[in-house]
């Protein structure tokens, strides 16, 4: 398939397709039409077809989509058909909560290490992994060929830590620090900034709008 630019809106919908298709597999559904998928996802059938046509279509006229096949093809597009060694830097409440979320590993994100700057946490076990100190990062990243770093440090420590991570070969950062890191990383490093407070604010806005409508 020829490489082409895919809009961010389409990319944001791909994990939803993957999740819904996984639920269909669990329910024993073998095939589904774009109209049926539309009813479940609250996305128009036309939008679904347009999105999937960016990657080849996958459907058959009069048949719809083979659920398992489409699920596996979207997994390949998302890079979920292989294992991604991942670490967490920042072993506070959020870091430990993420470490305890086993669903990540079912999707190919294998947590191989947890790190922190606080010596009090050294050696504390989180789901079978002992928390290590950040001065051990360079050797660890190279040894385990770490691809992804989840960053849950305070903003004041984030930029300094990003340099350590990228200098030692990390190519993707899942950033929960309260700052955008896109301009602070080399061009060959990808960043996904997650601002939990912004999500909560959007929820508050929608709640406020709903109350006014009522």
The order of strands across the largest sheet is 5-6-4-3-7-8-9
Which structural class fits the helix and strand makeup? alpha/beta
Largest sheet: 7 strands, mixed
Secondary-structure element series: HEHHEHEHHEEEHEHEEH
- Which quaternary structure do these chains form? single chain
The radius of gyration computed from the alpha-carbon positions, rounded to a whole number of angstroms, is: 20 Å
Low-pLDDT ranges: none
Average pLDDT metric: 91
Overall number of strands: 9
CATH architecture tag of the largest domain: 3-Layer(aba) Sandwich
Q: What is the domain tally?
A: 2
What general outline do the C-alpha atoms trace? globular
The CATH topology label of the largest domain is Rossmann fold
Count, helices: 9
Verbal overview:
The protein has 214 residues and is α/β, with parallel strands linked by helices. The protein folds into 2 domains: 71 residues, Orthogonal Bundle (Arc Repressor Mutant, subunit A), CATH 1.10.10; 115 residues, Rossmann fold, CATH 3.40.50.720. 46% of the residues lie in helices and 17% in strands. It is built from 9 helices and 9 strands. The strands form 2 sheets. The chain has a 7-stranded mixed β-sheet, with helices on both faces. Strands 1-2 form a two-stranded antiparallel ribbon. Helix 1 packs across helix 4 and helix 2 packs across helix 3. The longest helix is centred in the N-terminal third of the chain and has 19 residues. It starts with 7 loop residues before the first helix and ends with a helix. 22% of the residues are buried. The mean pLDDT is 91.
